Amino acid sequence: QKEVEQNSGPLSVPEGAIASLNCTYSDRGSQSFFWYRQYSGKSPELIMFIYSNGDKEDGRFTAQLNKASQYVSLLIRDSQPSDSATYLCAVTDTSNFNKFYFGSGTKLNVKP
Amino acid sequence: EAGVTQFPSHSVIEKGQTVTLRCDPISGHDNLYWYRRVMGKEIKFLLHFVKESKQDESGMPNNRFLAERTGGTYSTLKVQPAELEDSGVYFCASSQDVRSSTDTQYFGPGTRLTVL
Asked: Is residue B36 within 8 Å of B43, Cβ to Cβ?
């Protein structure tokens, strides 16, 4: 059973702070990693993906990947109340990279 | 550009009845996926179409579930007969490039199915 683990939260941070969301995965052969944001009752919305070790930045978001330790994280700088949502980590299957394994998501609350 | 659409948004049926969910992918996307999230659990893969062909149906829970994609456009997922444990949110997603490991999947809003 391939697993993707996330702390369910809620993670509470004050407005303007850095929010750090973490994800670990069990399949060492996974190649690509996606972060989705989901507002209550809405579609999961892609934030960014990463496939190489290291950091990848996109605006206020930075994804970090460490394949040796099998973890991927998402940093949100200058957090805003509008960032309050559930953040889903998705990891591709080793043999079928179109097949995603999701974590259960971390709920983020950004307090004004 | 229209996103992935799903119909209905909600469905409440009784155990033993049949329900059909529909998904319209983003125009031009050959790949279509069905996922399911049951209460308190993570989103789980059900199956993947490339055009009208089933590429991977390893996540389909049992033979009460039937997915079709006639003509390679929209897809339907039929549950017959529905059981209580089938309750959850059924998501559809689509993507463009099956050959890329970073091919992005775009999700629809989901259909919330409640089986009483």
From this structure: yes
String of b and e for B19-43 (b: at least 16 CB within 10 Å)?
Answer: bebebbbbeebbbbbbbbbeeeebb
Q: What is the C-alpha to C-alpha distance for residues B61 and A55, in angstroms, rounded to an integer?
A: 37
Tokens of B36: 């399911």
What is the Cα–Cα distance from B42 to B22, expressed in whole angstroms?
22
Q: What is the pLDDT of residues A33-60, one digit of tens each?
A: 999 999 998 999 999 999 999 999 999 9
For residue A19, count other CB atoms closer than 10 A to its CB. Answer: 24
Planar angle of CA B58, A87, B61, nearest 5 degrees: 20
- Provide the b/e sequence for A89-107 (b: ≥16 CB within 10 Å): bbbbbeeebbbbbbbbbbb
- Measured CB to CB, residues of chain B less than 8 Å from chain A are 3-4, 31, 33, 35, 40-45, 48, 55-56, 58-59, 91, 95, 98, 101-110
* Residue A21's pLDDT band (cuts 50, 70, 90): very high
Best probe of the B interface among A43, A50, A65, A106, by most B CBs < 10 A, is: A43
What is the pLDDT, as a whole number, of residue B31?
93
User: Is-contact A91 A36, C-beta < 8 A?
Assistant: no
Inter-chain touch B108–A43, beta carbons under 8 Å:
yes
